Amino acid sequence: MKNEILAHLRYSLGKDAGHASIYDWRMALSLALRDKIVDPWFRSTKIGYEKQPKRVYYLSMEFLIGRLVEDVAANLGVEDEARSALSDLGQDYDLLVRDEPDAALGNGGLGRLAACFMDSLATLAIPAMGYGIRYEHGLFEQDFVDGQQVEKAETWLAQRHAWEFERPEVSYRINFGGHVHHHEGKAEWRPHETVLATAFDTPVVGWQGKWANTLRLWSACPQKEFDLASFNRGDYLAASRSEALARTISRVLYPDDTTETGKELRLKQEYFFTAASIHDLIRRFLDDHDDIRALPEAAAIQLNDTHPAIAGPELVRILVDLHGLDMDEAIDIARRCLGYTNHTLLPEALERWPEWLLGRVLPRHLEIIHQIEGRQQADHPDSPRILDHGNVNMGELAFIMAHKVNGVSALHTDLVKSTVFADLHRIHPTRIVNQTNGITPRRWLHGCNPALSALITRKIGDGWPADLEQLRGLRPLAGDTGFLDEFQAAKRVNKEQLSNWVAETCGLSINPDAMFDIQIKRIHEYKRQLMNILETIALWNEMHANPHADWTPRVKIFGGKAAPGYHVAKEIIRLINDVASVINTDPVTKDLLQIVYPPNYNVTMAELLIPAADLSEQISTAGKEASGTGNMKFALNGALTIGTLDGANVEIREHVGAENFFLFGLTAEEVVERRSHPGYARTAIEASPRLQKVLAQIAEGRFAPHDPGRYHGIVGNLWDHDHFLVSCDFDTYFNTQRRADEAFKSPAIWSAMALCNTASVGWFSSDRTIRGYARDIWNVGPATNADLEQSA
Ligand code: F58
Question: What predicted TM-score, i.e. pTM, was given to this entire model?
Answer without folding.
Answer: 0.98
